[in-house]
Design goal:
Layout: H1 3-15, H2 28-47, H3 49-53, H4 62-87, H5 93-102, H6 119-139, H7 145-173, H8 177-196, H9 208-213, H10 221-239, E1 249-251, E2 256-258, H11 264-274, H12 278-291, H13 293-312
Helix pairs in contact: 2-4, 4-7, 6-7, 6-8, 6-10
Bound molecules: Phenylacetyl coenzyme A.
Residues 36-37, 40-41, 44-45, 48, 75, 106, 108-109, 124, 128-129, 132, 135, 196-200, 205-208, 211, 217, 221, 271 line the site of Phenylacetyl coenzyme A.
């Protein structure tokens, strides 16, 4: 069968909501887009452990420490499911790590911002995990089977993450003047970077058209960003806090909140590697890779020994 017919059959499957599985025929560009997005998503989960990991040893109570450790461990698990999903498309894990360490592969801009106070843990849970879920609920219905299935489990854990973040800020918001100020300051610093997580505006989004046609993405960057603003603009009222945007207001005609201009120059600077923590984050990942070499070697030696034993038996 010619490539043209195969492409037509492939698109028919997508239109009929039939999942694409690893051994099915797929256009090369579909494979590449999925490898790009899934591996970048995996890298985001792994690099995303660093900003919160920074506060594990300084959590204010045993309960908060246990919650934070569990959350950071969950992110590691998400990264592993996602690397495994990308491997089903023929990309080796080693190649994915090489691409991250060389700076070729991207990861979410949000993780290049510093975590300055304890309140940042709450703000990350509420705003960063909140933005992540908004995008990831859509991805539970993405067309590539292994990615969609990984996202179902990830979303269950992410919704717990968001609730714990909100609850942590809730406690601060009911506390002393100093605690309330910490809470507001964290919201002020994380709000705009959280909005950037959804990616560039639709007219600048180079991948969206094909990703929507192939149902890798089901909603555009701007649609999801608007959904997020509408949700958070209501939730912030419960905290008795404000969002740092003088242009935020309900638009009755649109039935959505209007919001101010995002600093796209800042976004692209961060994506290009010039954010506040880009260098530090990559250095930490490279160091972990180098220092973990003995673990990989030991695991490999053990696997080889098992194989030899099994053959002999
Ligand atoms: N940061 O054409 P589009 C989490 C790049 S997980 C950096 O619109 P696309 C959990 C984009 O790659 C958070 N780069 O791209 C957690 C593309 O460049 P390329 C991660 C960005 O793929 C919580 C170029 O700009 N979530 O937070 C960003 O169609 C707490 C043009 O953009 C996912 O990865 C950005 N924000 O749409 C962990 C979800 N935005 O690759 C720890 C899966 C765009 O062509 C603690 N990914 N770029 O060179 C997606 O849904 C999509 O990839 C988008 C971007 C929506 C992120």
């Amino acid at each position: 069968m010619g490539t043209h017919n195969l492409e037509e059959l492939f698109q028919n499957k997508i239109d009929l909501e039939i999942k694409i599985e690893p051994k099915n025929w797929m256009p090369e560009a579909y494979r590449k887009t999925n490898i790009r997005q899934i591996s970048q998503h995996a890298h985001s989960e792994i690099v995303g452990m660093l900003p919160e990991g920074n506060w594990i040893s300084r959590a204010p109570s045993l309960k908060r420490k246990a919650i934070l450790i569990a959350k950071v461990q969950d992110e590691a698990g998400h990264g592993l499911y996602l690397y495994a999903a990308a491997e089903t498309l023929g990309q080796s894990r080693e190649q994915m790590f090489n691409d991250l360490h060389s700076g070729k592969a991207k990861y979410s801009s949000i993780f290049n911002y510093p975590t300055l106070t304890w309140a940042d843990m709450g703000a990350i849970g509420w705003l960063v995990d909140g933005a992540a879920i908004m995008n990831q609920v859509m991805l539970t219905r993405t067309s590539y089977g292994p990615y969609a299935r990984a996202m179902v489990r990830i979303c269950k854990e992410e919704s717990f993450h968001q609730r714990q973040g909100f609850e942590s800020l809730w406690v601060l918001s009911k506390g002393s003047e100093e605690q309330r100020a910490l809470c507001q300051d964290a919201i002020n610093r994380w709000w705009w970077p959280a909005l950037m997580m959804f990616g560039p505006i639709d007219s600048e989004s180079t991948n969206s058209d094909m990703s929507m046609k192939w149902k890798i993405k089901r909603k555009t960057n701007d649609e999801l960003r608007q959904q997020f603003v509408d949700m958070i603009a209501e939730q912030v009222k419960l905290l008795g806090m404000t969002l740092p945007d003088p242009n935020l207001r309900w638009n009755e005609a649109r039935k959505h909140y209007d919001f101010g201009e995002i600093n796209w120059d800042e976004f692209w600077q961060v994506v290009k590697g010039n954010g506040p923590c880009n260098k530090e984050r990559l250095e930490a990942r490279k160091k972990a890779w180098e220092q973990g070499a003995w673990v990989r070697e030991a695991a490999q030696a053990y696997a080889n020994k098992q194989r030899t034993r099994n053959k002999a038996a």
